Amino acid sequence: MFSYIKDWRRRRIIKRSHITPAQWEAAYARLPLLQRLSPQERHDLRDLAILFLHEKSFSAAHGLVLTQHMLLIIALQACLPILHLGLDWYEGWSAIIVYPEGFVPRHTVMDEYGVVHQTQDALSGEAWQQGPIVLSWHDTEHAGELDGGNVVIHEFAHKLDMLNGAANGFPPLHPEMDAAKWASAFSAAYNHFQGQVHAGIPTGIDAYASAAPAEFFAVMSEAFFERPEVVQATYPDVYENLRQFYRQDFLAGYKQRV
C-alpha cells in the first residue's frame, strides 16, 4: 500500500511540473553527455529530474543566484547514474549547496600517529555521509562535455558508495552481482592504476583516482559515463561491473546509434 501511494504521489508531481519543454531542451542542449540517450531514456531522465528537484533542497553560497536552468543542469547529471536504479537510491539526505567557484572547507583529521591536523584544500565538490552534497557551479557548468571529468557524477557516485557505510569503493550491489568479482576487478585495477600514475604513464583517466579506493570508484564512474571507451579498453572488468551496477551501457548504446 505504501509503495502504491508513493508511486501515485510521484506521478502527480511529474504531471504538475511547470518546467517547459523549451527549458528542458535548453538544458539537454548544454549537456552533450546526454545525447547518447535514447528518446525513452531522455523522457525517463526528465521525470526523474523533476522528482529530484522536488525532493531535494538547493541553497546557494557566496552570493550565487541559482536559476531554473542551473538547477536542471545539476538535476539531469545527478540523476543519470540512477536512471535505471530509481530515486530511492538517493534517500537519507536532502541538501545540495552550490558555490560560485571552488571552495576551501576546513577539516580536522588525525594521522597514523594520533596527531590532529587542520586541512584546507580547494575543492570542486564534496559529499558528506548522510549530509549535503557541495558543488562548485564553475565546475558543474562545464561538466557533461565528454572530456572525462564530471564533478556532479563524481559526488553522487560517492553518495551511492556511502549507502552501506563510509565511502570505500564498494557500494551495495544488486542481488545478481558477484561481490567477489567486484572486489577482484576493482582491487587489481586500482593497484595497476596507482602504478601507472606513480610512473608518470598517461592513462586517459584522472590521476585523482589513485588517491583512494573511494576516489577510484567515483572517478571511474565519471569516466564510465563520459568516456566509456577508455574504461572498457583500459579496465574491461571494471567496465563490466559498472555496467551491471548502473544497469547502463553508454558504449553499446552509442555504437548502435552511430
Automatic annotation (TrEMBL):
It comes from the Bacteria. GO terms for molecular function: aminopeptidase activity; metallopeptidase activity. InterPro entries: MetalloPept_cat_dom_sf, MtfA_fam, MtfA_N. One of its GO terms (cellular component) is cytosol. It holds the Pfam family Peptidase_M90. This is Zinc-dependent peptidase. It comes from Candidatus Muproteobacteria bacterium RBG_19FT_COMBO_61_10. The lineage of its organism: Bacteria, Pseudomonadati, Pseudomonadota, Candidatus Muproteobacteria.
